[in-house]
Amino acid sequence: MQKSTYAVIGAGNGGQAFAAHLGLKGFPVQLYDIEKPKVEALKKLGKIKLSGAVEGTAEISLVTDDIGQAVRGAKIIMVVLPTNYQGSIAKAMAPHLVDGQIIILHPGATGGALEFRNAILADNPERKVILAETVTLLYACRSPQPGEVIIYGVKEVVELATLPSSYAKQVVDELNLAFPQFKTLPNILYTSLNNVNAMMHPAPTLLNAGRIECKSPFEYYSEGVTPALAKVIEKLDAERLAIGAALGIKLMSIEEWYKESYGVSGSTLYELVQNVKAYEGIKGPTTLNTRYIFEDIPTGLVPLSLLGTVLGVRTTTMNAIVEVGNIVLGRDLWKEGRTLEKLGLAGKTPAQIVEMIS
Q1: What is the pLDDT of residues 13-22, one digit of tens each?
Q2: Measured between alpha carbons, how far is residue 232 from residues 146, 202, 323 in Å?
Q3: pLDDT, tens digit, for every residue of 42-70?
Q4: Do 155 and 230 fall into the same domain?
Q5: 47 lies in which domain range?
Q6: Is 201 a catalytic residue?
Q7: Catalytic residue at 123?
Q8: Strand duo 139-145 + 148-154: pairing
């Protein structure tokens, strides 16, 4: 049986990992990145080497900085970019899409599929593509240079939902031909509210600010997430769970997520994080101008907090982390972030929100 062609949008850590892993499995891959030097380097190499949890060298059939060329003929389009760029790449991609293509955001953060759909419909209200978003990236990985990726670990389960929600089984069945880890969730409220990056990235980064600015190298998870910082994350997570409850959804706690995704055990979040072997060797950021703040606050904590306000859920810890991020970066992440207006959720009741994403 002929294998589907994949377009991988973004040649960063995750994008190169997906492209090479798909190539090793025999799937045709079209890899896109906006950075011309990176594209030229990958073109010259013609291949990507994986090491660690997945090993091998895969040839990539097409590497390009032309978004139209990248998505042409692809059945599945994997968007593996920082989530704050999803809106702009959606606008660039929209004129080149054809009905029936499957677009998957890895991950969608909070509201990614909604933002993407709005951009596509603005270009062509009649366009019928299938949108999906995952809770998290399949890999814990780093790319030290173009053409080389170290995969520290591959998650055992990655959950996914689609917009419209009725296409979830079709998308997962297609993905499972390459990756058995993908499982369905009922709708994108589950993926958008199960935003693990918003829990695990901004708070530990900001609360390790002194260590980061002193250029003191540290293991991000095993050393950066101390028992005290784990308690802050647990409080953030409690607010997230309350938002889900206000929408009539029982979400998986972050502790439950770690047990399912990595197969680890522990009685506290701190113990669970310490037991994730895939985190070994992952260093903390070397600057506070990091995507852990400028990405995961505006596409994670901001829409979560704004949704909480509408639902009458107090999000004092989320609000505090956003404000500290604003101070540190000298930016207004509330304004830059995914507001309810940008997601098409402004003025909606909980029942209308659930109906809208079904």
Answers
A1: 999 999 999 9
A2: 36, 11, 15
A3: 999 999 999 999 999 999 989 999 999 99
A4: no
A5: 6-189
A6: yes
A7: no
A8: antiparallel
